Amino acid sequence: MNWLRKLPGFQQTPYGLEWRLLRLMPTACLAGTLLPALMSLAARFLIVDGSAAELARRIQLFDFVMIGLVIFIWALVVTVTIGCVIVWLMKGPAYVADGFDVSHSDKPGR
């Protein structure tokens, strides 16, 4: 029994935007991690006004915002990657499903 019979006459759709997006995802993930980390590091040198307690609070708040931004970017990258993989799989070859005769196909409701 051949489980993976390709559908005869099926023409595969060429890959397009999903393949280009898949190739960009590692770069987007790396840039989305490094840029907020560098901004957080730069904030320690740029935020200089106020008392020590106020300075620590503002830097900590900025760090929390940058951590939230990194998590958001990671979630976005994972979501786009899943969508691209689904489109990529759907554009692949079509396979023939096993036929199953339905006894009431011409007389529904019995």
Provide a descriptive summary of the structure in words:
The chain has helices spanning about 15-45, 50-90. It is elongated and about 80 Å long. The protein has 2 helices and no strands. Helix content is about 65%, strand content about 0%. The protein has a domain at about 15-90. The protein is mainly alpha-helical.
Report the β-strand fraction as a percent range.
Answer: under 5%
> What is the oligomer described by this structure?
single chain
User: What Rg, in angstroms, do the CA atoms define?
Assistant: 26 Å
Number of helical regions:
2
Q: Structural class, from secondary structure content?
A: mainly alpha
Distance between the amino and carboxyl termini = 33 Å
Q: Name the helix and strand elements from N-terminus to C-terminus, one letter apiece.
A: HH
Tell me the overall shape. Answer: elongated
Helix content: 55-70%
Can you count the beta strands? 0
Low-confidence stretches: none
Query: What's the rounded overall pLDDT mean?
Result: 87
Please summarize the sheet with the most strands: none
Transmembrane segments: 20-43, 64-90
Keywords: Membrane, Transmembrane, Transmembrane helix
Protein name: Transmembrane protein
SSE topology sketch:
Layout: H1 17-46, H2 52-90
Helix pairs in contact: 1-2
Give a quick summary of the entry:
The chain has two helices and no strands. With 110 residues, the chain is mostly helical. Helix 1 (17-46) runs antiparallel to helix 2 (52-90).
